[in-house]
Amino acid sequence: MSPQPDRGPRRTVVAFHAHPDDEALLTAGTMATVAAQGHRVVLVVATDGSLGLAGEDFGAKGGELALTRSAEVEASARALGVARVESLGYADSGSGPELSPDPPGRVRFARADLDEAAARLAEILLAERADLLLTYDRNGGYGHRDHVRVHEVGAAAADRVRAASGRPLRVLEATVPRDLICRALDLVARVYRFPPEFHRSSFDRAFSAGGEITHRIPVHRQIRAKRTSMRAHASQASGGDVRTLAMLLRIPRPLFDLVFGWEWYREAGSAGGSRLTDVFEAAR
């Protein structure tokens, strides 16, 4: 039997997301790639997703939907090779204009105490001896209040871990090049009329500028796992074809593979512009 190739030291990557299904859209390919390389991948979800939109078959908002989405994220994690799934236990803050009152005995993530939430995440990072933390950029992607909070909590937790352990912990902020999205939307607008509530101008401030990107990760080899991860969140593809996941899953495979074959990150503390292709390589 020929010897197995040396893949270097086994590392641990913790992916921190706001809701069940967020991991499928922004970091699924990276997580599957890292897991396939023999590294340990841990998924941490901040909220229960109880205010997500879903068809009646999946239960109304609240506890029933939260249970459904918990099972969905577990299925997604299995498809990606994730070793452990944890929840910080916060209530979904929703995406409406007003932040709803806290449910009994729970706190919505957007109003969670920063130090307390960072301590919860840091406890997991320290127990796992994490080498790399995946979070979101400072805009929280498209600006969802829970996504912005993930960025804030992730940064604070990383500082806690470095202070407590003395070990380096790199942070990569999942994002998409803003200019790429805007060009794509402008092309789509030539053949498709967006609904009145859609504000194209909001994307001029969303995600990250192309010059800030440090890592452009090829995930083509794990595109099947990424698509399976997206399909696992059936509740968030329900309620009509206008849902984001529903629309994305209708893209034919060749085009889907092209669109989702890359994932982008900005390394915290870096000036950007590196475009590295390995998450374990630090930007200089």
UniProtKB/TrEMBL annotation:
GO BP, one annotated term: glycoside metabolic process
Name the Gene3D superfamilies on file.
LmbE-like
Mind telling me which Pfam families this protein's record contains? PIG-L
Q: Please tell me the species this chain comes from.
A: Marihabitans asiaticum
Checking InterPro entries in the record gives: GlcNAc_PI_deacetylase-related (IPR003737), LmbE-like_dom_sf (IPR024078)
| GO MF, one annotated term | hydrolase activity, acting on carbon-nitrogen (but not peptide) bonds, in linear amides
**Keywords attached to this entry:** Zinc
Protein name in UniProt: LmbE family N-acetylglucosaminyl deacetylase
* Highest taxon above the source species: Bacteria
